[in-house]
Design brief:
heterotrimer, B: alpha/beta, six-stranded mixed β-sheet, four-stranded antiparallel β-sheet, 11 helices, 37% helix, 28% strand, C: mainly alpha, globular
Chain lengths: 267, 333, 276
């Protein structure tokens, strides 16, 4: 395990050094990403400015949802480039090189590229989260703070799991990877608002299939001190985030099946 | 006990077919047809430790499929394969730790990093201990003259420089077997010679088994004592280079430089196959007319400035072999 | 006349053919947009339900149509650069482009037309069927893409949409031309595309923006691509306002084409001076 971490660190350092050669480009791209995500914030703000609240949730409360999921996705975006760009890798035949090295494919792909410019989205997410904490009337305890951080971490796992599934599907079809955007970007958009506004089947998919609600909505209820409207026990908010890492583990198993299939059929 | 044993390897691919034209494209949205391609059709051979084997064949013949199976990337449909006592695709990690692979058209080095940093990353990936790594690295640097390139990012290297670095990179972990896929493609003459010399020396001094896949027949002639020819998924020929030549044709070529460019060469035992200004190339069978006799007859009748006798280039040999196979297979290859 | 148009027609046709090859990608994109559309509708419905009618600039049914039109016609929005142009600029192959015996701006405009129309036609049809026909059948009639309230509105929409296409292509070409200077830098491209997405009504329908922002938004060129035609369709703008809408759209189109031609001329000189 320590060998794996050591190699990951070597990968990370190499990737960062490679990117820092294009310092200006990285900074520009980071600014661009920040502006793009900030524009989304403007859109959300405009809606709350006009409508005041959604399903009883005010802007600071929605900002907690928004900030948490934004930060989760941003961190995943930085870490998961190898899986995100896997479609192109398989198409170019570069996955062969990964198979030719005596290390696990998962480790190699996670080490692929630490995309620095995604810091723009991370910054925006942290700002929104900061606003939610500052403007909100949250009754802070150590437990709630810990829950916030762990929920964000579990959110990273959930999104990484999604990227792994997306990459796995590239073994079967390289052209239709866009289907996953419905879950990644769709999830990102829908996670900003409380789950009850969506229809039952939407909620079910984003709770039991891709556990977005588990890493975002339920812990937010616990942090904000709101009772779960459908009557689930209070403990739900505290345990639900674990669905994130579980989802990632399951995804990685499916990835292994995908690699086996790829090696049997060739390219 | 051969180091590499391959027995009756079979591999079939399913290729999706695309119908041309706009209407075909619309129809393709609804239904896709598939065609089965037999990339490997019972391939068998054995390679001893320390051999330098050339593996040639037309495109789509099954060369890269064989190499992929041998390196553990691909699982064949049926057949047996053992490399250094392991089944490559069953023990992938253990197996690839003992082999090196160089693709001529793709580098395994990190594009934006200085060469030496790529080497160090590979050292970490292959878990090479510091002392053996340093020794090996320095040996490669010296043999391939890499010292001025170490701090240069890979993207700034010329093709020849990159190939030398890729060779070194593939050997840092001291593999027993080296697969070379088109290593001299696109290289200038000097780089080609450097690569060939290096591979020859590596094979001779370190006993590294080398399997060379290439279209460049000069590589084959310079390096390989043994050549395997594959076409249509089947091994057509496996043995010494001379045997390959002899099998396809006994023909020799006599090339003469005429004083009079327009002179017609008329000899019952020689066929003119090419004429370029003053230079004329004649094909003949040495068993029908001895080379010395033919030369005497031709120089007796025409004024000659220069002449030489050679074997047909290996390209011609191989092309005839492919063609013969194609005819035998009913043109379906 | 047809002979002169041949190279431009060929570009559009080639694009169609290319897109049809990627059936899986087309279906995948369709699926994603359907999910987005439904999610947006649910979000807006929740916002509407928990607010007084006074803050609602248009009826929910009209807003639903606006959202679906945006998703269906997404490819018409000038929010992505032409990958070919970006690659050409990066690799220096742009020099070959300048050697072609055709009017360069016209050629790039045709490229933009191809890029905007081919995917739109392929994407809009199934989306309109889903949002207009399937949704009511599934019992979600309040979410549907309703037909225009009158024939005049429908005709006005079609006219405004044609002008919107011309405007969108003009913006598209401008963005592509700017690549000559920005060299395809990701950061700048993202800034452009973000501005387009936000200011055209894609992220949030323009009528939902605060009142004080509406006037400014209406005068920007982006409003003419989506917002104005959509509002004619939904009946939020009276069919009689068509003349004003067209004036705004075409005014901006002419201005941006003129700017584009001039900028392209400067760009050509720059590329030639730099040696490609």
């Amino acid at each position: 395990m320590s060998g794996a971490l050591r190699l990951y660190r070597a990968y990370a350092v190499a990737s960062i050094r490679g990117q820092l050669q294009y310092r200006a480009s990285v900074v520009m791209a980071a600014i661009g990403t920040f502006v793009a995500t900030a524009a989304e914030s403007v859109a959300v703000w405009a809606l709350f400015d006009r409508f005041g609240q959604i399903h009883g949730w005010t802007l600071p409360q929605a900002a907690l949802l928004y900030g948490m999921i934004s930060v989760s996705y941003a961190v995943c975006d930085v870490l998961g480039r190898g899986f995100d760009a896997f479609g192109a890798m398989v198409k170019a035949g570069d996955f062969d090189r990964v198979l030719l090295r005596p290390r696990s494919t998962v480790l190699q792909l996670f080490g692929q590229d630490l995309v620095l410019r995604r810091i723009g989205r991370l910054t925006q997410g942290l700002i929104v989260l900061g606003y939610a904490i500052a403007a909100g009337t949250i009754d802070w305890t150590i437990a709630r703070a810990a829950l916030l951080i762990s929920a964000i971490g579990c959110g990273v796992c959930a999104f990484l799991g999604l990227l792994v599934l997306q990459a796995t599907s590239a073994f079967w079809t390289v052209d239709s990877l866009e289907v996953w955007n419905a879950f990644t970007y769709g999830g990102l958009m829908m996670g900003r608002y409380p789950m009850p506004i969506y229809r039952r089947w939407f909620r079910a998919v984003f709770t039991y299939v891709f556990p977005l609600a588990c890493v975002n909505y339920f812990p937010s209820l616990a942090i904000l001190g709101i009772a779960e409207p459908l009557g689930a026990p209070a403990i739900t908010g505290w345990l639900a985030p674990l669905a994130g890492p579980v989802f990632l583990v399951v995804s990685l198993q499916i990835w292994r099946i995908g690699v086996r299939h790829h090696r049997s059929t060739g390219s | 006990m051969p180091q590499i044993v391959v027995e009756q390897l079979v591999k079939t691919y399913q290729i999706a077919e695309r119908t041309p034209g706009l209407w075909g494209a619309v129809r393709g949205v609804v239904r896709r047809r598939h065609r089965a391609v037999r990339a490997l059709d019972g391939v068998s051979f054995a390679i001893e430790r320390g051999e330098l084997v050339g593996y040639i064949g037309p495109n789509g013949a099954g060369k890269s499929t064989t190499v992929k199976a041998l390196s553990g990337i691909l699982v064949p449909d049926s057949g047996r394969c053992e490399v250094a006592g392991r089944v490559p695709w069953r023990q992938r990690v253990a197996h690839v730790a003992e082999i090196g692979v160089v693709f001529g058209q793709r580098t395994q080095l990190w594009w934006d990093l200085p060469v030496i940093e790529s080497f160090e990353l590979l050292r970490d990936i292959y878990r090479v201990a510091p002392a053996p790594y340093a020794r090996r690295r320095d040996q490669m640097i010296e043999l391939l003259a890499l010292a001025p390139l170490l701090d240069v990012p890979v993207r700034q290297l010329s093709l020849g420089q990159r190939m030398r670095c890729d060779l070194a990179a593939a050997l840092l972990h001291a593999p027993e077997i080296l697969f070379l896929d088109e290593p001299t493609i696109g290289l200038d003459a000097v780089s080609k010679l450097a690569v060939r010399d290096f591979v020859k020396q590596l094979n001779r001094d370190d006993g590294v088994t080398v399997i060379l896949t290439t279209h460049d027949m000069d590589d084959i002639e310079a390096l390989c004592t043994r050549v395997m020819v594959i076409a249509g998924g089947k091994i057509l020929s496996d043995g010494p280079l001379e045997a390959l030549r002899a099998r396809v044709t006994r023909e020799r070529w006599l090339t003469i430089d005429l004083v009079d460019a327009g002179a017609a060469i008329d000899d019952p035992h020689a066929t003119e196959i090419r004429r370029d200004g003053h230079r004329v190339c004649l094909a003949f069978d040495p068993q029908v007319v001895a080379p010395a006799e033919l030369i005497r007859r031709i120089t007796g009748r025409h004024a000659i400035r220069d002449l030489f006798v050679e074997n047909p280039p290996i390209e011609t040999i191989v092309a005839r072999l492919y063609a013969a196979h194609g005819e035998a297979a009913g043109g379906a290859a | 006349m047809t002979g002169a148009l041949r190279p431009y027609r060929a570009i559009v046709s080639a694009r169609f053919r290319m897109l049809l090859q990627y059936r899986a990608a087309a279906i995948a994109g369709l699926w994603t947009q359907l999910v987005f559309g439904l999610a947006l509708i649910m979000i807006y419905q929740a916002l509407y339900r928990s607010s007084p009618a006074a803050v609602q600039p248009m009826a929910f049914a009209q807003l639903a149509s606006y959202v679906w039109l945006g998703q269906a016609l997404l490819a018409m929005l000038p929010w992505n650069v032409d990958a070919d142009v970006r690659d050409m600029v990066r690799s220096g192959a742009i020099a070959y482009e300048l050697a072609r015996p055709v009017d360069l701006y016209g050629l790039w405009y045709s490229r933009a037309v191809a890029q905007r129309t081919a995917p739109t036609v392929l994407r809009a049809a199934p989306m309109v069927v889903f949002a207009g026909v399937v949704l009511p059948l599934l019992g979600a009639a309040d979410w549907r893409l309703a037909p225009p309230p009158s024939l005049a509105a429908g005709a006005g929409f079609v006219t405004a949409l044609a002008a919107a296409l011309a405007l969108s292509c003009a913006i598209s070409v401008l963005i592509n031309i700017s690549l000559i200077w920005t060299l395809g830098s990701d950061g700048i491209v993202v800034l452009f595309t973000t501005a387009v997405a936000l200011l055209s009504g894609l992220m949030v329908p323009l009528p939902l923006f605060p009142g004080w922002a509406q006037a400014a938004l209406g005068w920007l060129p982006f409003a003419g691509v989506f917002d104005l035609p959509f509002r004619i369709y939904a009946g939020d703008l009276a069919a009689g306002d068509l003349a004003i809408v067209l004036a705004r759209q075409l005014g901006w189109t002419v201005a941006l084409i003129a700017l584009g031609r001039w900028l392209l001329g400067r760009g050509i000189r720059r590329v030639v001076v730099q040696g490609g």
